[in-house]
Design a protein that fits this description.
7-stranded mixed beta sheet, alpha/beta, S-adenosyl-L-methionine-dependent methyltransferases, Rossmann fold, single chain, 2 domains, 240 residues
Length: 240
Amino acid sequence: MTQQLLHGKLAKYYDRLYSYRDYLDEAIRIQNLIIKYSPKEPTSILDVACGTGLHLKHLKDDFQCTGVDISKDMLKIARKNAKGITFKQVDMKKLKLKKKFDVITCLLSSIGYSNTLGNLNKTIKNFYNHLTKEGIVLIEPSHAKSFYVSGKPNITIYDGNDAKITRINISKTKPTTTQLTMHIVVAEKGKEAKYFVDNHKLGLFGIKDTLKTMRNAGFKSKFLANGLMTGRELLVGIKR
């Protein structure tokens, strides 16, 4: 699979495009959800599709943290953002760390990069196998009714002194997949503006199907209409 530009050669702009997010507040919300749903007191977290590591940066004082991502470019930034944390380049569909954790997180609908229902089954089973007894998983789901409305344009703007960046997303959604096309313009100080087209293909998994997959893997699972952020849902699974 061709690596997406925003997760590859344009990864250095990722944190600026997402600078509107309050990662500290989200980390506190993650911790509160862990406290609420974990049957035990957890000490370790694995963040799958960890990106640039900014959630783990705010969790590392309270947990032993590990981050995995398929992109070496994102991990290079994560190692600078969150020093002292173990980061590994791993595909979630082939997760095999020979270590278990009390908590696994997979956020920002990254589970959609499993692409197919068969791969979703593998990924969820990998999560189950990497959890300790009564460990929990927190997953932000990927489905058509969340953010991927076919033909609807969305825009993100970074307006800094060092650079101006715009990203316009347009989705072409089918029953089980979405083709997310990003039109990105980067204008850095002293340089010519550059334009990029970045294509992302994601699987769309209904909430019922995802919960069923989690239960089949061995989780006691629950759907939360309100998750870490307004408008984002969350799936919670407890290893039985």
